[in-house]
Amino acid sequence: MSGNQGASEIDADGRRDAxxxxxxxxxxxxxxxxxxxxxxxxxxxxxxxxxxETVHDVxxxxxxxxxxxGFDRADAAxxxxxxxxxxxxxxxxxxxxxVGAFVATHPLSLVGTLVVALGLTIGIxxxxxxxxxxxxxxxxxxxxxxxxxxxxxxxxxxxxLMTIWGRVDWAxxxxxxxxxxxxxxxxxxxxxxxxxxxx
Length: 199
Fold this sequence. Notes:
By secondary structure, the protein is mainly alpha-helical. It has 2 domains: 8-58, no CATH class; 65-196, no CATH class. 64% of the residues lie in helices and 3% in strands. The chain has 7 helices and 2 strands; from the N terminus they run ααβαααβαα. A two-stranded parallel sheet has the order 1-2. Helix 3 crosses helix 7 (173-196), helix 4 packs across helix 5 (107-127) and helix 6 packs across helix 7. The model is unreliable at 1-19 and 61-65 (pLDDT under 50).
């Protein structure tokens, strides 16, 4: 059959079918990963790994829907910026301290708050598909580097700002951690968005 792969076809009733999906770098990575698992010789495996690294280095022009792999200094800077932008209003707002005082006396509320924050972060990074975010070389074979980086940066930002600006009193460590955890929630969401939206 002639014609381009992405071109739509007209069926016997004269209706035009939707165009075929155009392959992406993500599709190519999936194929290379599958190939990597089937090759036998170490030399062939090394060559496939080199090709995978090359695909990771290829730039895609679109801002949204790009392939996002790894977590480097630029990603960390974007996460920090997003964390600060979302977090400063929480640090200066008195309600943060009130909510922190409440969750300090209600541990299940604190746990639920942190679980929701992590769930939203995972959803932004890996489920919502703002970008094609791939887990590559996870820490300890399990933890995605991007998730660990975003969460760590957001928590350290909350800890630093709340402490430096005198918003927490470390004479009561549990209360301080609870208040920092409340500030952490929007910061980790901001860090995730700041990291992936620029691509």
